[in-house]
């Protein structure tokens, strides 16, 4: 294992949104650990809370409509207790963030160079010339061929892949120890996606940063992640090293997802369909196994009343005991 | 036997400029593609954004003006609007869109949305129409009471199923599906894909399946064409394309698809970089001096590749 | 860009031509004629007929139109029947008055509205925001003439801080310092009135732009860089929110010559708005047609100017 020690520890994190004057937790008791030099993938379908989790780590959620409690420990301090000024010292030099949509995530009226330079102004003592040089260096580092020209351009003048490289350059400008990448390749074509993922891997090798990769794409996870956490309805339901998870998935949800991927099956086969729908935030059952309603043919006794996390193999954790009894439903006519 | 033939289809857009707003350039969105459709088969159109695959689908059904080329449906040339009306083309070729939400009129009830093609093409009494709508909803697995609801009351997957219900209302022969599952989550996507296969089997439908997702296309389609810069770089059976790709662009595209297994990912990465380098080196051999994709030449009964004769063998 | 500007000017020609025909006929179809106001029981109908004949009002309309448009192209809009002066000179003089009044009005308007809009958006839902919204609704609800009359009564007649009509005191001669001060003194009260009444739109617009901008992805990116929130506002939110206001700047600039009918009438200010109203009342065709043509031209020019301004401030928009 290349991992050498923990740099971020999330303990029992709850993030609730205010709906009709009441808070409903979209992230409901998540605990995670990120180690130096590893890529931890958080994977799940839309609405499972993965993006909410990502943005709240550096306090980018809207404080008026969100309730956050639990612990996010970085360097022995709980980030949730920090004020805006203290958080600003973390954002950038300690934790960098890469966003999904490369066009809307860049200020349309500002030159690329200025957008990259902005963080340097506040987090380094470099003078204007040093900063300009650093911007060139960063653009080169993210694989942009003619950095001088690109630095003077505006976002709309670049292609999607180039914009995503710029977003990455912004995130790594102040050499953060942790990178949080929220669906960094979702908006891109596969060939560009491959390039961006390679870039992330290269950067990680160079800097030794820990990366949290938020994605819905199991293919992307398989290609780059070291460890994987699967989220469903606000909870982590399975967590394991990448090979372990792909070769021996345990939780019914994880297994169902794998069987839904067209790539994994021959075309004569039917894809697995998960029965029912993800319950909405308001209707989410807060007790018992949250996946139970999607696998009604599994008898109720198979689930724990109060689902616990079980270590089923080294570093492989599964929530609830229902995985022991799980089998796919026999083909039915739909 | 093929029931529809596309011959050398071109869609060009003028670029205007100058004092009198004259045409100064053309964008060749679709630049000379030919296809044949047999009943009961699914055809995949794959390419990266901007390659012209959506424009192709829209041009065939008549949502884009065709610059040149012909669409021949059951022996009748239906290239332009007037001739389309004379044949059964409008009834027999239907379309499903990526964004199911914005392709359903938010101010109409589900019943009226599905009734529209029925009223346009089938002469049914009110009673028969009502029964047909219920039938269609049942086929797409929606409850009877969905009839009286509005589109916003449904989830993304359900809306896509309503889109499909509308498309199959006239018992079409061909459905053009433009990225029908790209906006959906994996498990919902699986449901829609299964369902599309079911109705294909049941009604002997053909699909033109337009997608950037090679995994989905592989699962759904019998024949696949890879598109780049408005032209086909390669076309053939699923097996031809996935197991014996010839064009450098196809190889590059296939090597970039993330595989759903971590086993061998280092090797895959090396392979991908090798192909990428080879692509940069060999680019000239696959495109003409204007960077236009070469014409297709057959290398087997089913398999066509854009290349100069003789075909360079192997590569990597 | 040069090409586009030339093209836009060429396109203006047919637009102005259509407008000129419309204007000409609307003026013709107005009931009465320039001499209506002169009629007394003693007026001899033959004398009226003679005047009409002399003024060319009895010619067939195509001849009248060609004569008018031909002169207009030479910059001659004829003689005002009521003022007995060259229309060009008359409008020029009024336009200058209106220009200074409007310039001050618009400057004050932006000076009040932009800070208020920014504050309301920045501190959304705070007490400050609610106060500003209340203010903007009150000024929106008050009719122009009510506030104008109130100010005139209060600051003009009661407190005597400001003159109550005219554009300059007659005792000063042009060029002296007192003369310019007197001019400024005359336009200040109408300008303040105008500015206060016009703020609502800009405040509300700017406020909602800022609130929208706060939720933009690029603002989230800016915050993720760890730069002070103040900088996020000044460099990312405010600048981008002011953009749509810049889009109206072209119209605002050409609108400076338009004048406000209510304000000028109530404050007895000899400007374009007042001239327009009085020329309609007195059927002063040559003035009406000249003014409408001018307003038409200014609107077209304003839209071109707005496009040019946008292409300068927004890098995404290129005029080609």
From TrEMBL, chain A:
Keywords, sorted A to Z: ATP-binding, Cell membrane, Membrane, Nucleotide-binding, Transport
Domain ABC transporter: residue ranges: 8-258
UniProt cross-references to InterPro entries, sorted A to Z: AAA+_ATPase, ABC_Ni/Peptide_Import, ABC_transporter-like_ATP-bd, ABC_transporter-like_CS, Oligopep_ABC_C, P-loop_NTPase
Entries under CDD domains matching the protein: ABC_NikE_OppD_transporters
Membrane topology annotation: Peripheral membrane protein
Domain of life: Bacteria
Biological process annotations from GO: peptide transport
An example Gene Ontology molecular-function term: ATP hydrolysis activity
PROSITE patterns: ABC_TRANSPORTER_1, ABC_TRANSPORTER_2
Cellular component aspect of the GO annotation: plasma membrane
Cellular localization per UniProt: Cell membrane
Family affiliation: Belongs to the ABC transporter superfamily.
PANTHER family membership: DIPEPTIDE TRANSPORT ATP-BINDING PROTEIN DPPD, OLIGOPEPTIDE TRANSPORT ATP-BINDING PROTEIN APPD
Protein name: ABC transporter ATP-binding protein
Organism field: Ureibacillus endophyticus
UniProtKB/TrEMBL annotation, chain B:
Gene3D superfamilies: P-loop containing nucleotide triphosphate hydrolases
Alphabetically ordered keywords of this record: ATP-binding, Nucleotide-binding, Transport
Pfam families in UniProt: ABC_tran, oligo_HPY
Domain of life: Bacteria
Claim: ATP-binding is one of the keywords in the record: yes
A single BP term in Gene Ontology: transmembrane transport
SMART domains on file: AAA (SM00382)
Residue ranges annotated for the ABC transporter domain, each copy included: 6-254
Alphabetized PROSITE patterns for the sequence: ABC_TRANSPORTER_1, ABC_TRANSPORTER_2
Keyword ATP-binding attributed: yes
Protein name (record): ABC transporter ATP-binding protein
Native organism: Ureibacillus endophyticus
Lineage: Bacteria, Bacillati, Bacillota, Bacilli, Bacillales
UniProtKB/TrEMBL annotation, chain C:
Pfam families: BPD_transp_1, BPD_transp_1_N
Residue span(s) of domain ABC transmembrane type-1: 95-306
GO CC terms, sorted: plasma membrane
Keywords for the protein's UniProt record, in alphabetical order: Cell membrane, Membrane, Transmembrane, Transmembrane helix, Transport
Entry-linked SUPFAM superfamilies: MetI-like
Membrane topology, record value: Multi-pass membrane protein
Major subcellular site: membrane
Keyword Transmembrane carried by entry: yes
Keyword Transmembrane: yes
Protein family: Belongs to the binding-protein-dependent transport system permease family.
Protein name: ABC transporter permease
Organism encoding this protein: Ureibacillus endophyticus
């Amino acid at each position: 294992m290349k991992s050498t020690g923990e740099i971020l520890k999330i303990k029992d994190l709850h993030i609730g949104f205010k709906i009709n004057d009441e808070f409903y937790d979209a992230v409901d008791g998540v605990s995670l650990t990120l180690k130096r030099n590893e890529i931890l993938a958080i994977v799940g379908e839309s609405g499972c809370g993965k993006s909410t989790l990502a943005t709240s780590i550096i306090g980018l959620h809207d404080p008026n409509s969100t309730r956050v409690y639990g612990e996010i420990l970085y360097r022995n301090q709980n980030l949730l207790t920090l004020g805006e000024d203290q958080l600003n010292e973390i954002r950038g030099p300690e934790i960098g963030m890469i966003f999904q949509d490369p066009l809307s995530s860049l200020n349309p009226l500002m030159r690329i160079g200025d957008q990259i330079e902005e963080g340097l102004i506040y987090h380094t003592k470099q003078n204007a010339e040093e900063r300009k040089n650093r911007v060139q260096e960063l653009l080169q580092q993210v694989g942009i061929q003619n950095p001088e020209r690109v630095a003077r351009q505006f976002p709309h003048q670049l292609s999607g892949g180039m914009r995503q490289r710029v977003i990455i350059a912004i995130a790594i400008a102040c050499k953060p120890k942790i990178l949080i990448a929220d669906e960094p390749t979702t908006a891109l074509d596969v060939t560009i996606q491959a390039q961006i993922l390679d870039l992330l891997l290269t950067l990680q090798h160079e800097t030794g940063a820990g990366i949290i990769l938020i994605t819905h794409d199991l293919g992307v996870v398989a290609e780059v992640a070291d460890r994987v956490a699967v989220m469903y309805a606000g909870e982590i339901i399975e967590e394991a090293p990448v090979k372990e998870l792909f070769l021996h998935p345990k939780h019914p949800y994880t297994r169902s997802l794998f069987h839904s991927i067209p790539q994994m099956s021959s075309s004569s086969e039917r894809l697995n369909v998960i029965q029912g729908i993800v319950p909405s935030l308001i209707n989410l059952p807060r007790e018992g196994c949250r996946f139970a309603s999607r696998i009604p043919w599994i008898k109720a006794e198979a689930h724990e009343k109060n689902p616990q996390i079980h270590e089923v193999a080294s570093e492989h954790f599964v929530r609830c005991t229902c995985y022991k009894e799980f089998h796919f439903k026999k083909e039915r006519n739909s | 036997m093929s029931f529809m033939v596309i011959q050398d289809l071109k869609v060009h857009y003028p670029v205007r400029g100058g004092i009198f707003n004259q045409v100064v350039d053309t964008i060749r969105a679709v630049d000379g593609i030919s296809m044949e459709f047999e009943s009961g088969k699914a055809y995949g159109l794959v390419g990266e954004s901007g390659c012209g695959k959506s424009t192709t689908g829209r041009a065939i059904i008549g949502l884009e003006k065709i610059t040149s080329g012909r669409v021949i449906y059951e022996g009748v040339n239906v290239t332009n609007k007037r001739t389309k009306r004379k044949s059964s083309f409008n009834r027999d070729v239907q379309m499903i869109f990526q964004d199911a939400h914005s392709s359903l009129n938010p101010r109409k009830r589900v019943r009226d949305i599905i009734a529209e093609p029925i009223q346009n093409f089938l002469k049914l009494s009110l009673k028969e129409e009502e029964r047909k709508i219920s039938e269609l909803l049942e086929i797409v697995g929606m409850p009877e009471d969905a009839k009286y609801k509005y589109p916003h009351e449904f989830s993304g997957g359900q809306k896509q199923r309503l889109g499909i219900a509308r498309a199959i209302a006239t018992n079409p022969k061909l459905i053009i599906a433009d990225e029908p599952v790209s906006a959906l989550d994996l498990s919902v996507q699986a449901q829609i894909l299964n369902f599309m296969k079911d109705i294909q089997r049941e009604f002997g439908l053909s699909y033109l399946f337009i997608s950037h997702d090679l995994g989905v296309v592989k699962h759904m389609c019998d024949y696949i064409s890879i598109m780049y810069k408005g032209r086909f770089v390669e076309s053939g059976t699923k097996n031809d394309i996935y197991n014996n790709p010839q064009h450098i662009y196809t190889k590059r595209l296939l090597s970039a698809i993330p595989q759903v297994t971590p086993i061998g990912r280092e090797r895959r990465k090396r392979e991908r970089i090798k192909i990428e380098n080879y692509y940069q080196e060999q680019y000239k051999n696959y495109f003409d001096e204007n960077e236009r994709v070469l014409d297709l030449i057959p290398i087997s009964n089913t398999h066509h590749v854009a290349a100069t004769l003789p075909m360079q063998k192997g590569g990597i | 860009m040069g090409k586009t500007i030339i093209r836009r000017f060429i396109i203006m020609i047919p637009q102005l031509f259509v407008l000129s025909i419309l204007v000409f006929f609307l003026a013709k179809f107005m009931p009465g004629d320039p001499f209506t106001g002169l009629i007394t029981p003693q007026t001899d109908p033959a004398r009226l007929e003679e005047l009409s004949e002399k003024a060319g009002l009895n010619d067939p309309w195509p001849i009248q139109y060609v004569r008018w448009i031909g002169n207009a192209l030479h910059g001659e809009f004829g003689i005002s029947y009521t003022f007995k002066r060259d229309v060009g000179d008359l409008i020029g003089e009024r336009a200058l008055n209106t220009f200074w009044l409007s310039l001050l009005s618009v400057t004050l308007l932006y000076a009040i509205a932009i800070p208020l809009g920014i504050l309301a958006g920045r501190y959304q839902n705070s007490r400050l925001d609610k106060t500003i919204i209340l203010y903007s609704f009150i000024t929106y609800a008050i009719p122009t003439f009510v506030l104008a009359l109130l100010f005139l009564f209060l600051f003009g007649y009661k407190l005597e801080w400001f003159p109550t009509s005219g554009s300059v005191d007659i005792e000063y001669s042009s060029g002296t310092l007192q003369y310019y001060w007197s001019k400024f003194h005359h336009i200040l009260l109408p300008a303040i009135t105008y500015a206060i009444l016009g703020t609502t739109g800009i405040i509300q617009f700017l406020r909602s732009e800022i609130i929208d901008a706060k939720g933009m992805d690029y603002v989230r990116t800016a915050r993720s860089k760890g730069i002070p929130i103040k900088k996020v506002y000044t460099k990312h939110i405010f600048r981008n929110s002011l953009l749509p206001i810049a889009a109206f700047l072209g119209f605002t600039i050409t609108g400076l010559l338009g004048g406000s009918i209510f304000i000028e009438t109530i404050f007895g200010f000899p400007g374009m708005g007042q001239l327009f109203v009085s020329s309609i009342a007195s059927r002063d065709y040559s003035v009406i047609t000249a003014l409408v043509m001018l307003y038409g031209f200014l609107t077209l020019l304003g839209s071109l100017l707005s496009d040019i301004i946008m292409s300068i401030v927004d890098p995404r928009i290129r005029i080609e």
